[in-house]
TrEMBL record:
Signal peptide: none
GO molecular function: phosphoribosylglycinamide formyltransferase activity
UniProt-recorded name of the protein: Phosphoribosylglycinamide formyltransferase
Keyword Transferase: yes
PROSITE patterns: GART
List of residues binding (6R)-10-formyltetrahydrofolate: R64, M89, R90, I91, L92, N106
Positions of N(1)-(5-phospho-beta-D-ribosyl)glycinamide binding: G11, T12, N13
Residue ranges of domain Formyl transferase N-terminal in the record: 2-181
NCBIfam families the record matches: PurN (TIGR00639)
C-alpha cells in the first residue's frame, strides 16, 4: 500500500509509521514525504529511511489553490493510495480535498468534535476536562470536521500542563496512526456517501 505523508514539523508520527513498517506491523511503503517547510525535522527522518522527499514552500505561490495544485502534481507522480496528514499545518483547499476524497486521512490532537484547530491541549486544560486524546478522520472540506475513524483517550491528571498532556497524547497518536493505516493497507477501511466503512460495515 503506497502512502504519501505530508508534514510541516518534527515528524514523530511519520517516524512511528516508518518504525511500524520496519517492524512489519504496517504493510505499506512511504512512497514520498512532502513538507511545506524546508527545515522540517521529519525530512531528515525520511532521508534516514531512504525515502524520497519533496519540499514545496507555500509562500512561493499566489494562492492556496496554486499551492495545492502543485502538491497534487508532485504527489501523483508517486501514485499514493493513501495521503497521510501528519502534522501538516496548512489548510487544504476543496481542490485538494476533492482530488483525494476517500484517500486523505488526518490525525488531530483532540477528541473531535471537541477542539478543532490549534492549541488543543491548552484548551482542554482550561475547560477543566477530565479526558483528552487524539482523533483520526477522513478529511473533508470542513477543517478537522471529516468522518471519524478512530480515537484514543488519555486521562487528564493533576498538574498537567499543555506539554505534559501533549506528550501523553502523542504516545497514543504514534500507536493509533500505524494501526489505522494498516486497515487501509488491508483494504478494510473506506469512505462512501454514508460515511466510514470498516470491513464493509458503517463504523
Ligand atoms: C501531532 O500532534 C498531530 O496530532 C498534529 O500535529 C502534531 C504533529 O507532530 N496534527 P509530529 O510532527 O508528528 O511530531
Amino acid at each position: 500500500h503506497r502512502l504519501a505523508v505530508l508534514i510541516s514539523g518534527s515528524g514523530t508520527n511519520l517516524q512511528a509509521i516508518l518504525d511500524a513498517i520496519a517492524e512489519g506491523s504496517l504493510q505499506a511503503q512511504v512512497a514520498v514525504v512532502l513538507s511545506n517547510k524546508a527545515d522540517a525535522g521529519g525530512l531528515e527522518r525520511a532521508r534516514q529511511a531512504g525515502i524520497p522527499t519533496e519540499v514545496l514552500d507555500h509562500r512561493q505561490f499566489d494562492s492556496r489553490e496554486a499551492f495545492d495544485q502543485a502538491m497534487i502534481d508532485k504527489l501523483d507522480v508517486y501514485k499514493p493510495e493513501t495521503v497521510v496528514l501528519a502534522g501538516f499545518m496548512r489548510i487544504l483547499s476543496p481542490l485538494f480535498v476533492r482530488h483525494y476524497t476517500g484517500q486523505l486521512i488526518n490525525i488531530h490532537p483532540s477528541l473531535l468534535p471537541k477542539y478543532r484547530g490549534l492549541h488543543t491541549h491548552a484548551r482542554a486544560l482550561e475547560a477543566g476536562d477530565r479526558e483528552h486524546g487524539c482523533s483520526i478522520h477522513f478529511v473533508t472540506e470542513e477543517l478537522d470536521g471529516g468522518p471519524l475513524i478512530a480515537q484514543a483517550r488519555v486521562e487528564i491528571v493533576a498538574n498537567d500542563n499543555p506539554e505534559s498532556l501533549s506528550n501523553r497524547v502523542q504516545i497514543r497518536e504514534h500507536q493509533l496512526y500505524p494501526l489505522v493505516l494498516q486497515w487501509r493497507a488491508e483494504q478494510r477501511l473506506s469512505l462512501d456517501e454514508q460515511g466510514v466503512l470498516l470491513d464493509g460495515k458503517p463504523l
